[in-house]
Amino acid sequence: VQLVESGGGLAQPGGSLKLSCVAYGFTFSNYGMSWFRQAPGKEREFVAGAWSGGRPYYADFVKGRFTIYIDNDKDTLYLQMNSLNPEDTARYHCARARTRNYARTPGEYDYWGLGTQFTVSS
What's the pLDDT tens digit per position in 19-65? Predict the structure, then answer.
């Protein structure tokens, strides 16, 4: 199993960015997938989750700014982020859930990508 994120970089406040996570080595559509983020000095926190046929769910701080979606044909998880602010600066990781449910804690995930870093700054 391998998860490979991409799409990080630099964005301006109010801007947009899309992250991708390609999955290898398992049947992507059978698992829940999520995005987490970790800023320096802070704990890893849940951002958004989804599974094939399920309803996406989000952390409260997303407030309608982010959209998570899945492309099963490409075994890829995406996170479209709009209205970015400096507090969104972090390393973003995708993760595979142990089950298909509304998992929000790191312990409910069994595989993680190395992450992609992006910074929101003017």
Answer: 999 999 998 889 999 999 999 999 999 999 998 888 999 999 998 99
Determine phi and psi for 77, rounding to 5 degrees.
-110, 140
- Of 31, 17, 22, whose CA–CA distance to 90 is shortest? 17
Specify the pLDDT at position 59: 97
Contact of 112 with 2, CB cutoff 8 Å: no
Instruction: Strand 66-71: give its sheet, edge to edge.
Output: 2-6, 17-24, 76-81, 66-71
User: Own/partner pairs for 57-65, CB < 8 Å, 24+ apart?
Assistant: 57/102, 57/104, 59/104, 61/87
Which residues does residue 121 pair with via DSSP β-bridges, in sequence order?
none
42, 55 contact by CB (below 8 A): no
3-state SS assignment for residue 30: helix
